[in-house]
Amino acid sequence: MPAARNAEFAHAFAVRLMQHLVVPTFVLDAERKVIIWNKACERLTGVAAAEVLGTSDHWHAFYEEPRHCLADILVLGSTEELESLYAAHSEPGETAHGIRAENWCVMPRVHKRLYLAIDAGPIFDEDGALLAVVETLRDNTEQKLAQMALHSLAVKDGLTGLANRRSFDEKLEAEWLHAQREGTPLSLLLVDVDHFKLYNDTYGHQKGDSCLKAVAEAMGHQVFRPTDLAARYGGEEFAVVMPSTDLDGALRVAERIRQSIFDRNIAHSASQTADRVTLSIGAASIIPDEEHDPGDLVNAADVALYRAKHSGRNRVMVNEMAAAE
């Protein structure tokens, strides 16, 4: 009996200890019922232990719709769900018997969206049967937002919010290799704001910045496939990379962009070709092969852009030599 009393005391002590841990923690039994929901978990989620103890309703502390938490996945052995449910996760076996994952959680009760780092580990009896799973949570929201901000600075243009030149170069290189491997067309648009120097001289640099933002916004509305990339190429020049797009498709997008800016009717009294801001666009398309490289596609689009400028501006021109056959 002393041994049994000692075991009971040890269990009670472990429960009290877990209740007062500063790390948000909850425990599910082998039936996925909550048997511990500590005070730190209450503070994090706004959900009192009394609401979830003895139930499988712990999901509503983190999500607006029913779904499995990491502890549930361990109890059920359904690790195939990890990919669809979590932004990042370890592979089973990488952390002994446990799993680590990261995810955005909506936290409905406290009306917050938090990025949580999650650890779940099983507890087995002497015969290897699952007794419970312990899930611990860590609020990594500030770190995640800082990481996202740094990533945005690295890949986005600070003025327009479009992809920057570095992102453009990387995207073009990657899509070139993919198109070469698949034998599919790759198209490129180079977009230039007509008489932009005169616009800046007439209206000032703040208005010039507003003009560039308007062009970027228009491009964002017209370039909506997730595979495409609209970027600020430099100064008043923009670019659009369009995988799996032939010349006809590129022309349709280019014309939509040109017309969108024309229809915005941004006054440009100093323009030598129109009473408003307009765009000149060069389009080129090619099925990549061993005899060409991404620079050839850029050059082809640049030649087409030059033709558009010297043919009256406010138009789209094509480099036929680079068009995919």
Automatic annotation (TrEMBL):
Its EC number is 2.7.7.65. GO terms for molecular function: diguanylate cyclase activity. GO terms for biological process: cell adhesion involved in single-species biofilm formation; negative regulation of bacterial-type flagellum-dependent cell motility. Coiled coil: none annotated. It catalyses: 2 GTP = 3',3'-c-di-GMP + 2 diphosphate. GO terms for cellular component: plasma membrane. This is diguanylate cyclase. InterPro entries: Diguanylate_Cyclase, GGDEF_dom, Nucleotide_cyclase, PAS, PAS-assoc_C, PAS-like_dom_sf, Rev_trsase/Diguanyl_cyclase. It holds the Pfam family GGDEF. Gene3D superfamilies: 3.30.70.270, PAS domain. Residues 100-152 form the PAC domain. It comes from the Bacteria. Residues 184-321 form the GGDEF domain. It comes from Paramagnetospirillum marisnigri. Residues 10-56 form the PAS domain.
